[in-house]
Amino acid sequence: MTNQIPPIQRVLIVGGTHGNELTGAYIVKKLEQQPAQVRRATFETITLLANPEAFATVRRYVDKDLNRCFHQLDLQDLICSSYEQIRAREINSLFGADGKTPADVIIDLHSTTANMGLTMITDENPFNFRLVAYLQSVNPLVKVYILPKSAQESSGLPSICELGCTIEVGPVAQGVLQAEQFQQTEALIDTALNYLEHHNRGVISSFDNALTVYRHVGTIDYPRNELGEIQAMIHPQIQFKDYEPLHPGDPIFLTFGGKAIAYEGTSTVYPVFINEAAYYEKGIAMCITMKQQVTVSIGRSLRRLASFS
Amino acid sequence: MTNQIPPIQRVLIVGGTHGNELTGAYIVKKLEQQPAQVRRATFETITLLANPEAFATVRRYVDKDLNRCFHQLDLQDLICSSYEQIRAREINSLFGADGKTPADVIIDLHSTTANMGLTMITDENPFNFRLVAYLQSVNPLVKVYILPKSAQESSGLPSICELGCTIEVGPVAQGVLQAEQFQQTEALIDTALNYLEHHNRGVISSFDNALTVYRHVGTIDYPRNELGEIQAMIHPQIQFKDYEPLHPGDPIFLTFGGKAIAYEGTSTVYPVFINEAAYYEKGIAMCITMKQQVTVSIGRSLRRLASFS
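Structure tokens for the assembled complex are given below, as produced in the milestone run.
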């Protein structure tokens, strides 16, 4: 299967897709000054500060969430004229499959107010599965959140490339740099680039990794009134408890009057993006995942590939 | 000394002075629906969502930080026409000393991305000292941050009233509601209103409280280049270590290249507002305080009043 992916020629590291997520933006600004840190012998690494206007004003976006502007239909619609829609077309014309300097791999750097630690968000591409299995074998704290392309509706920036993925690090407040998460993200980028270098050289060591993944199955919104105003907060028992089991009947919200609201699902799930600041306006209090074990074989025994239970 | 302050007639509870500090804004929205929670027999309690436009767009401010718009000179300058300057004049014309319904006490509700727990910010008014001593006697976790009127330059919203004070709760990310901090803030408001009620009734129990206060002495900015861009992050050793001692030579910053920068002061200080998101643009990486013990006597023995060492 590795042979299906020819050697990687160009990797794009993106920060500041959301202008108030400073971790990625400042990593990209650092790499602009110190490109040797991400230089590898077998491929080119380039960097991009994706939304400079939003970064300058420390806001997620100016007109529209840039990370929802990459639908193929929108990219082809030249009438769309918000700042982010124009910027999305520019980025696609540079790094998309038909762009001037198409990227084979995109790593998009984000941060979240949720306690998601160091998370890789990817689709089900087998190449990405091997990549994240490698990352988790190097750093067992790396969490893997599987967001099928249908769920993303392919509108995120990494979707302009077959092998796009996203790093989420948290909890980090919007508009804040935290050194620990900055360095964790840098280390994860470094490991990912090493994997791509090994791939190109055909020197990936053989190993089986029992990978734990969290597969996106849906979202839960806050209780709201008829005006759309939220009527409850994340329950303190699950605040910062991303990736921990939520059982039917467990409290998930607390009304302003102090009354607990229980999770009404029928099975145990694993919420992520709990209390992400940017998702209040999107109608998302948390995303719901199923925890799954996957065996990913890398190297010699490549016949047993990623398979969901 | 208590006799110098006549009975409190009107208390104003303010939220949403900064539109992305949701704790206070949602407490005020709740109190608009449930005013009985803050009703007391001897005074009127009113609430104010101070910056509704900023709250609607979940930003700190629209044009200008509202909590820096209350300089007396600015309030008298009718040419100032930014949204927040107009709003400041409206608020002052309602609740200022010469307003339609002047407030005797203002409690302004804020949150911070720094780990400041439950902090009361006040000037050195003896009445406020007795109030915070009472609050700390009820909840020993309450921290007291003394910001002399000169340091504030009297431009904050609470400065339109002699007995204004600010509640800061954190760490809470901008744009996020956290139930624990919401309830802690509500409880602190409740205790403060109880104190004011006791004051009006003359039934404050006699007690001496050895109050710990943190007195503002200055600020430290991030290392920056000639363009004003920051060149280092808060050092992980002091991230979330508000109110803890910082000794000369201790690391305070970490460059993007991983080099520690030491605190160069000559004495031990106690930083607060460490890595507050909104202070990057103000040139403040942290505020520096001195820790002091003060004995505040309340009730019968009122002759020994707040005295700084």
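Residues 297 and 304 of chain B are 6 Å apart (CA to CA). Confidence is low (pLDDT under 50) at residues 300-309 of chain B. Further analysis is deferred to the final report.
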